[in-house]
Specification:
By secondary structure, the protein is an alpha+beta fold.
Length: about 180
């Protein structure tokens, strides 16, 4: 029992010391949040992504920094008193447009991860930077082949290495974990 208590105290002390050394401030997260919002809204001027929820970050000591937002891949019309049905050809056009834009969104997310690593200098190098994007769809949309959410994460050190040219793009691609739900 004494060993258990002693080991618990040691682990707790080590965790507290790590948290005390890591001073991830709300201000540093807000700069990245603002940058992410701007990148989402300006990544395609001709046909902008619709930002539905501003990016929010949360720091989890020992794990890393998690950012999340909600996006509509393209501005679309919806059912209204003036348009009570959506034409089939419009549904097909929106679906193909969103499939095409999904590739661009993923590339932008990768770039956002890499660019955020340098500005988050108080996040320990071994911790993760995570970006989760929830995708919005109207009930009438065909979502075949489209995820509801994309989550990308990588260790901050790997992102820094890419930014500073110490690893090539293929090494970074293997370091970034991508999940689609």
């Amino acid at each position: 029992m004494k060993r258990f208590i002693l080991s618990t105290v040691l682990v707790t002390s080590a965790m507290a010391a790590t948290v005390a050394e890591t001073q991830v401030t709300r201000a540093s997260m807000q700069r990245v949040e603002k940058n992410f919002n701007e990148r989402i809204q300006t990544s395609d001027i001709k046909s902008p992504f619709q930002l539905l929820g501003v990016t929010r970050g949360i720091y989890l000591p020992g794990v890393g920094l998690v950012f999340s937002t909600e996006v509509n891949l393209m501005l679309t019309t919806n059912i209204s008193p003036f348009q009570q049905t959506i034409p089939k050809e419009y549904v097909v056009r929106v679906h193909s447009g969103k499939l095409e834009r999904l590739r661009a969104r993923k590339q932008t997310m990768r770039e956002m991860l890499v660019s955020s690593a340098a500005s988050l200098e108080t996040v320990p190098a071994g911790e993760q930077i995570v970006l989760g994007v929830t995708l919005f769809y109207y009930a009438w949309e065909d979502t075949t082949g489209l995820p509801a959410q994309i989550v990308m994460q990588a260790p901050r050190q790997k992102l820094l290495d890419m930014q500073q040219g110490r690893v090539n793009k293929s090494e970074l691609e293997s370091a970034i974990k991508v999940q689609e739900f």
